């Protein structure tokens, strides 16, 4: 491993320490299982501040937003953030209540968040507060409100 690559891995690991230090009450369960992966849980009420911090520190690519359904009372919003200049993928998981699944939109931080938020909304029913265009993206409009990836959906799991 070259000196430049070793230095980049140290910087990548340090970002998780900085994240924890800057948001001590909002970041927990930090893990860096490999040089290319880091994972943490975040408080859903701090998602915008945390993501702005990551953007300001070089994590300039929102790779994915997805949902996870944990009936009967919890859902998660999962974010994958990377840097165009480094190999680290940061996965952040924010728990939200299933009976009121909402979280702040990241559209004013990452330009591409709208697509991911729309997809997560239509498949799980997670509402992204202040998303400028929270409309169906993939499914027919008459399916809006059915949330087909929730585990209590009539067609889940699809046996085919």
Question: What would your notes on this structure say?
Answer:
The protein is an alpha/beta fold. The chain has one domain (3-143): 2-Layer Sandwich (Beta Polymerase, domain 2), CATH 3.30.460. The protein has three helices and seven strands, in the order H-E-E-H-E-E-E-E-H-E. The chain has helices at residues 3-22, 47-56, 113-124, and strands spanning 27-34, 37-42, 61-70, 74-83, 86-97, 102-104, 127-129. Strands 1-2-5-4-3 form a five-stranded mixed beta sheet. Strands 6-7 form a two-stranded parallel ribbon. A hairpin with a 2-residue loop joins strand 1 (27-34) and strand 2 (37-42). The longest helix is centred in the first third of the chain and has 20 residues, at 3-22. The mean pLDDT is 90.
Keywords:
160 residues, globular, single chain, five-stranded mixed β-sheet, 7 strands, 3 helices, alpha/beta
Strand and helix layout:
Blueprint: H1 3-22, E1 27-34, E2 37-42, H2 47-56, E3 61-70, E4 74-83, E5 86-97, E6 102-104, H3 113-124, E7 127-129
Parallel strand pairs: 2-5, 6-7
Antiparallel strand pairs: 1-2, 3-4, 4-5
What is the CATH C level class, in words?
Answer: Alpha Beta
Give the fraction of residues assigned to helices. 25-40%
SS strand fraction: 25-35%
Kindly state the number of beta strands.
7
CATH superfamily: NADH:ubiquinone oxidoreductase Nqo5 subunit
Give the oligomer, counting copies of the same chain as homo and different chains as hetero: single chain
Overview in brief:
The chain has helices at 3-22, 47-56, 113-124; strands at 27-34, 37-42, 61-70, 74-83, 86-97, 102-104, 127-129. With 160 residues, the chain is of the alpha/beta class.
